[in-house]
Amino acid sequence: MSTMSQMPLTSVACCQITLAVGDPDGNRAAAQQAVERAAAAGARVVVLPELVNSGYVFRDREEAAGLAEPLDGPTVAGWIASARRHGLILVGGLCERDENGLVRNSAVLVDASGVRAVYRKTHLWDMERTVFTPGDELPPVVDTEVGRIGLLVCYDLEFPEWVRTVGLRGADLLCVPTNWPLSPRPTGERPAEVVRVQANASVNRMFVAACDRAGPERGVAWVGGSVITDADGFLLAGPLPDYDEGLVIAECRLGDARNKRISEHNDVHADRRPELYRSILEPAQSADRFLMERKHHA
């Protein structure tokens, strides 16, 4: 039997739940019930959606600020209590008020020892720019009992160079709280968001667990596209039938992500040619300067 086949399996779950903007108590209760179901199903890693405590469709910055919590607030405290009770690693999205009073769209990883990592969303989607302060630090990769776990939030997945930073630092599993607004797609097609998850998993050879949400909110509907992929980018679980509420759970041999070979002669990380990629840096900077000047003069 090969070494790969002897590596242990880890049960990973995404809790696709309905959230409501401005109802932190109800949102926390819904998340708690979902975590209990995931634990009962044997999950060791549980992922919750983006902005669990607050909901998403804010009227303005002031409403978001009124719902934001510090890391030692009731939402994260409840996650830590669940992690201790069930022996879980839990990742969830938080409307956070940071130590400087700034409102952040954050992902938090906790285990029985407490908060292990916090990531502030770097790439803000649409009206999020009017509400949140973007992060400016690399996403964390955390050593845990089950393997190395990286964190991103939603729109971050659309920047392959950002996802690559997680892969290059050795993540076995990337956990991504999301709120994907529903957009039209051709009949029979998978959501583009799911396709991007699979592509990012494949080109980095790492597992990805992306947890979306359900339930309409102030006229906005959601994809409901929670999925878990293997290191080849194939779906292990999800999306759920009718993209509704429920539990997406899969057994993952996370050690497989440490083998970056895709053929006898190819390795998705070792085959990179960064000395050539640098040649595009200056043109990219010139384009960025052009866009900034155009915006300034608009």
From TrEMBL:
Transmembrane segments: none
Keywords from the UniProt entry: Hydrolase
SUPFAM superfamilies from the UniProt entry: Carbon-nitrogen hydrolase
Domain of life according to the entry: Bacteria
GO MF, one example: N-carbamoylputrescine amidase activity
Domain CN hydrolase: 10-254
A biological-process GO annotation: putrescine biosynthetic process from arginine
Family affiliation: Belongs to the carbon-nitrogen hydrolase superfamily. NIT1/NIT2 family.
Protein name in UniProt: Predicted amidohydrolase
Species this chain originates from: Streptosporangium subroseum
